[in-house]
Amino acid sequence: MRAVVAVLLFVTAAHAALWGLFQEKQAAPDFRGILPSASYAPFEPGHTVADSIADSEKVRADLKKLSTLTRAVRLYSSTEGNELVPPIAAEFGMKVTVGAWIDKDGDRNKREIEAAINLAKRNSNVIGVVVGNETIFRGEQKVEDLITLIKRVKQSVNVPVTTGEIWNIWRDNPELASSVEFIAAHVLPYWENFTDKQAVDQAVERYQLLHDTFPGKRIVIAEFGWPSAGYNLRNAEPGSFEQASVLRNFVTRAEAIGMDYNIVEAIDQPWKFFEGGVGPYWGILDASREPKFAWTGPIVNENYWKLAAIALLVGLFMSLPILRLAEPTMMQALVLSAAANGVGAWVATVFAYWAGHYFVFGSAFAMVLGLILLVPLVLIAMARIEEIAAIAFGGAPRRLIVKGATVAPATMGETISFPKVSIHIPAYFEPVEMLKQTLDAVSRLDYPNFECVVIINNTPDPEFWQPIQDHCRTLGERFKFINAEKVKGFKAGALKIAMDRTAVDAEIIGIIDADYVVRPDWLKDLVPVFADPRVGLVQAPQEHRDGDRSLMHYIMNGEYAGFFDIGMVQRNEANAIIVHGTMCLIRRAAMDMAGGWAGDTICEDTDLGLAIIEHGWLTHYTNERYGHGLLPDTYEAFKKQRHRWAYGGFQIVKKHWRKFLPGASRLTPDQRREFSLGWLNWLGAESLGVVVAILNLIWVPIVVFADIAIPDKILTLPIIASFIVSLVHFLALYRLRVHIKVGQMLGAMIAAMSVQWTVSRAVAQGLITEHLPFARTSKGGLSVMSIEFQAFWEAVIGVLLLVGAAVLIVNNDSTLIKITGNKQVREIYIFAAVLVLESLPFLSAVAIAILENSRINSFAFWRNSAVRTAELIGLRPVTMPTVASPSQPVASEIHRDS
Questions:
Q1: What is the pLDDT of residue 866?
Q2: One-character DSSP codes across 55-124
Q3: pLDDT grade, residue 892 (50/70/90)?
């Protein structure tokens, strides 16, 4: 344990060292002077001065703060509270450039101009009037009309009059320049896709261009700035470091060449969310009126080590459960602690984002909802990393029953050497020959003391039960046959009847499905485990003998194997296995204590197994294949089976959750954890995947039309990281534990992803319903494929996700459709990638549904293709077909639907 503690401390120290290594510190010229001017908007547009005293005090507090930073402020309107600014600014010796907001509303324009004229006349600290702000750029006034408005104001005031426009508007409209007394040019390198390193040079170059174009005219850079947060615009990256560096370099250059300038803007404006992701973040003060950076000394993040402390504390806290593991290896502890510290770094990033951004209701709601959904996703990823570490770097399983290992003798008491086993086989409309094979295999068991109870329930057709009754008579008195009609309680109801007909001296109950052919050594190998009186249940895995029926069945078989060779083996270490009905041996006393078979869920086997564990019994598992059953006939049957398991699992969660409360049962903390994480890892992960995919689809038009990007570091990148963890988890653990070929493994991955929609539907139905009918899984070849396409909704959602990704990419990089103004926002590309990843489970279902109905599903197709390819390239001679005689019969096969 000391070694493990040392590993945790080492990882924490390494994490702290990384924070120190990556601490950003930039040099920039010191600025110890005072800015000539900064843009100021005291209120949101539409503000009404209802309480002039309160509004005046707000403006007074702002200007008191700003008077230490700038000699003047520039306004953009002369109404809606802006009229309070000039007289209050005079109290602090500040000058004001008044603005008149001009748009297409003639009445408002008239009010704005009159107000601006009045402010200029009544306040001696007004040094200029700006008529309109980017009015020509927005297309709200023609040049000649704006000139008319400018002339009107010039005639009414004694201060310089101009309009504010982007530099190229001035360049391209010399008549506009002739109508004003100075040129108020906006130079915003961010919006022109320049990097922060190029921004100052670009501004100086534009300033010089205007000087050369309009010699003798006073040039004022009326807007220059850089956003401290938001999304990138091609090469332009916003950020607090970038803002500080750009502004400090700019003011130094401007002062050196005698440039008149105005910084946009004085204070962050959170209401400017309509200006994309960067709109609220142009201020040199934040919305709390605190400086966002220092004008002297190196540029640093003052909160950096606070965030580092959060990351380290969360990482250390999440590493503590490693100390509870039974004999963890150093490598195992290293992987788990590194993952925990990675989560800590993500949590610190979330804190930094939350503290450095502003939220309106909609964005706050989306942010909180996204984080709520990410928390279980992170927990699932951590559970999978833990399983990777345990299997790849931990010790070998200690509780797994291994074939050939020494076990206790098959003794239940001093006088009984072979306890009696009663094997129960429930059947419902099962193929006769298939069930006969199952019974024949039971008759060959190498065990002297057993009986077999066959119960056919709710199957009135004598073609299904009469041959089985006759076959049981042939096999001898060990075989009991029951034909029960109108049985309630699904499979559990039938098994209850079987218990009533069980021999009184039977101490162990064996359960196998009607399609399972057991090996002769099943009971001989596993019954001895019950010599330990604490053992209540022994489970063997499912396996299938028809995986070579088709390519679809081949990958299905590989998908099933993962659960029995990975998940069940690991759960067994915590005495927390999931009972899956067939190939199960249960001590009768444990069954009676747990209340026997319950018919209130459609997964009666798992329900009973959990009840047995809750009463304190030990359970054991072996991954030795002691029996082989049949795979579902069709993809439809495969999905129906998975739906039943998921719905039944959710029923069990609702039924048993109170037993997981402290003191409510004999469950150990490890058992509670295994079952809780198991349900979250399966039911939760699949449901979350669908919910997040649908929510992201809904978010696509918001991103496209509202010009809003999804924060990558806190929302989209964790989804991609979780997907990578799941991919590594599947591939690594299959390679380590499941002995199948690579092709079958990849097919199994597709099959596993393909049931995401099915499982999520089952969970949704479990939320709104209490019971659904038991759906038998069609096996044995009696069923035929449905004419309906089995992945319709998966196809719809998958295609919508791909279309959404394409729309995002095209809209983000509009050069693809030959228009200008492409943004190339990194967050949008990442969001599109997330949509593509989220489409994979849905498209996997589509792929299997298409495969099932295609020629390539047949192994004969691949064999014939290989032969034909060899013939075409000359590796083997061409085989000439033989002509059958006319009298040769043609084989046919008739299938009937169950």
A1: 80
A2: HHHHHHHHHHHHTTTBSEEE-S-SSTTGGGHHHHHHHTT-EEEEEE---S-HHHHHHHHHHHHHHHHH-T
A3: very low
